[in-house]
Amino acid sequence: MQTRRPPYGRRDRVPTEEPEQHEADPLDYLPRLELRFSQPPKTSHGFVFGWDENSDIVLPWIQGISFHHFALTFDEQNRPIVEDLVSFSGTEVTYDKQGKGKRSYFVWIIGGHRTPQGKECVVINVNTSLKFQIVVSHHDTTSEQYVDNVNRFRQGVASMDNLLGQLYLRSRPQTERASGEETPGTGPIVLKKVLGEGAFGVVSHIWDVSTGEEHALKEPSMKAIRAGKVEYDMWKKEARIMGQISHDHIVAFLESTFTPWPQLCFEYVPGGALENYADIPMHEGTQILCQCLSALKYLHGLEPPIIHRDIKPANILVQYRTASSIKVKFGDFGLSRDTRDPTTFCGIYIYIAPELYNEEDRRNAHHEARSYTPAVDIWSLGVTVCECVYRLPQSKAKGVDWCHEIVKRLARDYYCADELQRFLCDEMLIITPSLRGSAESCYTQALHLGDASEDDCQTPTPASIQCHATDEYGGDQQTVLLQNAAIWPGYLQEEESLDSAEKACYLQAMLQDAANWPVTPEEDSIDSAEIRRH
């Protein structure tokens, strides 16, 4: 643990080349203490701060400061911490002015985790007149050298803990609590950071300063709470659905409470939403496809099936991304249904399956409502992967016309396309829902794509997929939620699909038609080498 040094001292020799200009850091000109592994503390309790003359850092004997007030040391995970040593007035540690509140016999993590490391100003408040700003050096807490340094640090330099051996067992002289100072509080301290806000609520990152435990908290916005517009049934439905689900590529549901308002706790996925990632190459797109299909196979195989209904890059979260692999998880099941008769038109226009647009027209014409099938998720996932890896059409088309634009683009370049693009054509982005592959079928086939990698399965071997194509997509990106809408036709509920020969004929016809479609300047072909987000 140390502060930063100025880049050049007053007496340093000027380098031959022009030195890089460094912006002055106010911390470089303030009095400071540098605590290093090379100069370990006196005892195994770490660097102890207090007015005891045997403390590592002796503090003035004034109101609010204890004999042994706090220590800088490490926890069991080798993370640097501030530990209050049962001080009379308590200690406060703030992170960019968050986490206020004094505690006695308490621990604050100040390093070894992305949350405190991401803070610009971590301050230890001892009393109203004495504060320390902490600057912690970043280390690989798993490296052998670091672990060895921490172990030696814990031993201290004394042969035995003769100074603080009975630190918690004997009474010590205390100064009086400063006038007007409150008694130290109790309970955990957490830092809260808003991750995103949508039509239904707010999602925040919650981090416990003592344990380092973290989770994502989903709750209604304060605006909705004040206006009395919290739909408790919808929140309870999401909690009920998520409570039934357990899959490695679906965000884990932890717990829920509905008093005084709904709060749903989920595992925190540190990489954020897939929509924030650009330049997704084909091998990552294939991995994303396989992992999401694995989750859909699980969801659609439940009894009754669960349909996500809102698959898009914003609802796919990234667990990690390395040079060779990426791991993702489905999130936000607020629009999900676990019934056999879903009749709500919802999702984002750009990702909606064509049968939903057709049914919206039926609803507007006051025709009989019909429900849709899990095939809507297959289409939405196909569009999502296509958007991440390839360019989507630059088209103003909407509704089913937009869906046809997608299919037309893919079909036109089918014979020079890579195997991922062909797979999307053949199995997922097909206008007729009964011709789309099921989640199970798509998953099984996708595992044989050359860049597939799904951690639940055996390592796939490259294989050539022989398939055919379909039609298009486009439209405004706004959320649609028509809760009482009449939806889907009877043929959408039929389990049987066309046999492979019929499907092959259908797809071959689409490819032949694609050869006759005119090419507009806006509809330049998809280039698999040009892997960028549009």
What's the shape? elongated
Portion in strands: 15-25%
At CATH level 3, the topology of the largest domain is: Transferase(Phosphotransferase), domain 1
Q: How many strands appear in the DSSP assignment?
A: 17
Number of alpha- plus pi-helical segments = 11
Low-confidence stretches: 1-14, 166-171, 335-347, 456-498, 521-534
Q: How far is the first residue's CA from the last residue's CA?
A: 44 Å
Largest sheet: 5 strands, mixed
Count of the separate structural domains: 3
Give the class-level CATH name of the largest domain.
Mainly Alpha
Task: Give the strand order, joined by hyphens, for the main sheet.
Answer: 2-1-3-4-6
> Would you list the SSEs in sequence order as H and E?
EEEEEEHEEHEEEHHEEHEEEHHHHHEH
Proportion in helices:
10-25%
Q: Can you say what the CATH homologous superfamily of the largest domain is?
A: Transferase(Phosphotransferase) domain 1
Structural class: alpha+beta
Overall radius of gyration: 30 Å
Looking at the overall shape, the CATH architecture of the largest domain is Orthogonal Bundle
